[in-house]
């Protein structure tokens, strides 16, 4: 039977057309995978940059508030702020202003622009009006820097102080929104990659069935390219996940500190005391726990207002920091109550230190507006040399009992918990003057 040249030609054309179709399909799919990967890399990079930038903006707002405190404290002390401090505050203002412009406009650089989502635009220009508030906050900081009059500086400082906490909360809202949008983008990209992957597999199976062995090498190359693309994407996702974990760690640090005084809160207090108990047992390292309560704090709030009360709490926190060592710890336990943990200190030194703190607070001038607010504290001390206790609850109970005794004795005094014949004795500090 003779071969039919016309049939051979037709078969050749059919195979050629199918082969070209297979090549075309692979070319289209490869291009789609390439641009999908580029899109994934671009979106991931911009998302990470924006999340980090918004987190830095949030951090800068607190740095500026702290710089304002330091500059204003220097003015109260009658000495100008150091050049290093003013330069640092100017840098923080400049960096936060640049971050605010980038985040609100989406113009990350000259050649790098992203579109603001509707929720982000609402945060910056809607009811929350974050862009204008950040701008106002930075203007207040700049005016505080350039102010030479104490009265003007006080006004700017109070406005910064009053707005910083709510601004931090709203900046945190922006960070959370960026993180949420980044996660949504990653989910969409994963779905798109899955779709491309499934489509590619179907096309390869059809090519194996209808184009035979010449397409096997193309199938192998395409599968290999897809595998490499998926592995690369997994590495990117792992990298972004690590950055999100770091951001979450920073948020956890914020959660363990009191937003008003920036002191540690009760969240870590018990675990810290348990660690000290262990060190005291193992290495005979003594410590003292002091319960401190502001006398007649309700009268301050009732007479001068809650903002004056907040000011007193902040000033007292700063004074406690100044009077303690770097390895001592101060906590705001709640309301007007503070806990001071003195590490590596003997009994006499601890009582003397707390008495110095009491006198420093009594002699300090607390000025709020046109008012001079007198302030005293009552305190109770537990020392590990007087009681060998292994339970945090018992330590707090003894210190709190001593504090109650100080209040009962007329306030503005210190009571020391001591053991006498297996009973608790509340001794009066010899240098204390009761009111």
From TrEMBL:
Keywords carried by this UniProt record: Membrane, Nucleotidyltransferase, Transferase, Transmembrane, Transmembrane helix
Signal sequence annotation: none
NCBIfam families given in the database record: GGDEF
Membrane topology: Multi-pass membrane protein
Membrane spanning stretches: 20-37, 194-212
Top EC class of this enzyme: transferase
SUPFAM superfamilies, per the entry: Nucleotide cyclase
Protein name: diguanylate cyclase
Organism: Amphritea atlantica
Domain GGDEF: 285-419
A GO molecular-function descriptor: diguanylate cyclase activity
Pfam families: GGDEF, PilJ
EC number(s) stated in the UniProt entry for this protein: 2.7.7.65
Catalytic activity: 2 GTP = 3',3'-c-di-GMP + 2 diphosphate
Subcellular location: Membrane
Domain of life: Bacteria
The organism's taxonomic lineage, starting at the top: Bacteria, Pseudomonadati, Pseudomonadota, Gammaproteobacteria, Oceanospirillales
């Amino acid at each position: 039977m003779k071969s039919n040249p016309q049939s051979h030609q037709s078969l050749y054309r059919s195979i050629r057309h199918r082969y070209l179709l297979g090549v075309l399909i692979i070319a289209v799919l490869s291009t789609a995978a390439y641009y999908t990967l580029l899109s994934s890399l671009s979106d991931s990079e911009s998302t990470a940059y924006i999340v980090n930038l918004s987190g830095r903006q949030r951090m800068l707002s607190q740095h500026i508030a702290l710089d304002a405190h330091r500059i204003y404290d220097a003015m109260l002390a009658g000495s100008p702020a150091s050049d290093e401090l003013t330069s640092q505050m100017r840098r923080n203002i400049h960096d936060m202003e640049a971050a605010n412009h980038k985040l609100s406009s989406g113009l990350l650089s000259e050649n790098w622009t992203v579109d603001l989502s509707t929720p982000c635009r609402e945060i910056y220009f809607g009811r929350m009006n974050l862009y204008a508030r950040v701008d106002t906050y930075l203007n207040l900081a700049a005016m505080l820097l350039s102010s030479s009059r104490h009265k003007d500086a006080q006004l700017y400082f109070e406005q910064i102080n009053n707005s910083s906490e709510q601004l931090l909360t709203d900046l945190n809202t922006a960070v959370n929104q960026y993180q949420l949008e980044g996660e949504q983008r990653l989910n969409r990209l994963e779905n798109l990659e899955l779709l491309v992957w499934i489509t590619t597999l179907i096309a390869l199976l059809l090519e194996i069935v209808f184009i035979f062995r010449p397409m096997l090498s193309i199938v192998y190359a395409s599968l290999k390219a897809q595998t490499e693309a998926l592995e690369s994407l997994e590495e990117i996702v792992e990298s972004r996940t690590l950055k999100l974990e770091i951001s979450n760690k920073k948020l956890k640090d914020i959660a363990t500190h009191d937003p008003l005084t920036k002191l540690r809160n009760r969240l870590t207090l018990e675990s810290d005391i348990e660690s000290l108990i262990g060190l005291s047992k193992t290495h005979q390292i003594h410590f003292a726990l002091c319960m401190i309560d502001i006398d007649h704090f309700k009268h301050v709030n009732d007479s001068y207002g809650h903002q004056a009360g907040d000011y007193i709490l902040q000033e007292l926190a700063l004074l406690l920091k100044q009077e303690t060592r770097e390895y001592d710890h101060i906590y705001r336990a709640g309301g007007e109550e503070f806990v001071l943990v003195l590490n590596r200190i003997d009994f006499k030194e601890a009582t003397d230190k707390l008495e110095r703190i009491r006198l420093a607070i009594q002699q300090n001038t607390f000025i709020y507006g046109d008012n001079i607010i007198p302030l005293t504290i009552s305190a109770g001390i537990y020392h590990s040399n007087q009681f060998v206790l292994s339970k945090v609850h018992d330590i707090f109970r003894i210190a709190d009992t001593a504090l109650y005794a100080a209040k009962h004795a007329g306030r503005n005094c210190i009571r020391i918990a001591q053991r006498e014949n297996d009973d608790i004795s509340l001794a009066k500090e010899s240098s204390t003057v009761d009111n």
